[in-house]
């Protein structure tokens, strides 16, 4: 039962692994007679005059695929990672933009608060309040000279001593309204 290949289940006698296939027989070319045997004429050596032509169909060699399984798997993992990180990266960038906007608004509010504090300090000064009352509300202090232009005529007098415009202060409001409308139309008083 023993053979040169070895027993079944054991190691072969020549130290090679047994695959279950028939061994390949490599043929060699016969060496021509009358030629001197040298290293270039050995069966495995290449001759300088000939070029080895490889054809993928004739020799049984398979072409290597354009994309290997590992390359496709790596590309898929990179795509999955990119899709997974797209949302958080977008949120991060949106958050940074919002922070910049809020910081700008905060700076504007700080400037506005500083302006309002300065205005409050100015208004707490009695001289500023007096000047604003004279300019905006035409207030005068007792003893100051006041000039008021009414219907194109200048009327002068001391502050607090100007006579009323001739209207009776005791008229009811509706009669006072009608009187002022009549004055505005230019109708003479009755």
UniProtKB/TrEMBL annotation:
Name the UniProt key words of this record, in alphabetical order: Cell cycle, Cell division, Membrane, Transmembrane, Transmembrane helix
Name this polypeptide is given: Cell division protein FtsB
UniProt keyword annotation of Membrane present:
yes
Give one GO biological process term: cell division
State the species of origin: Blastococcus mobilis
A family per Pfam: DivIC
Q: Which InterPro entries match?
A: FtsL/DivIC
Region annotation (Disordered) ranges: 1-62
Which classification does the entry list for the species?
Bacteria, Bacillati, Actinomycetota, Actinomycetes, Geodermatophilales
Give me the stretches of Basic residues compositional bias. Answer: 18-27, 44-53
**Residues that span the membrane, as ranges:** 71-89
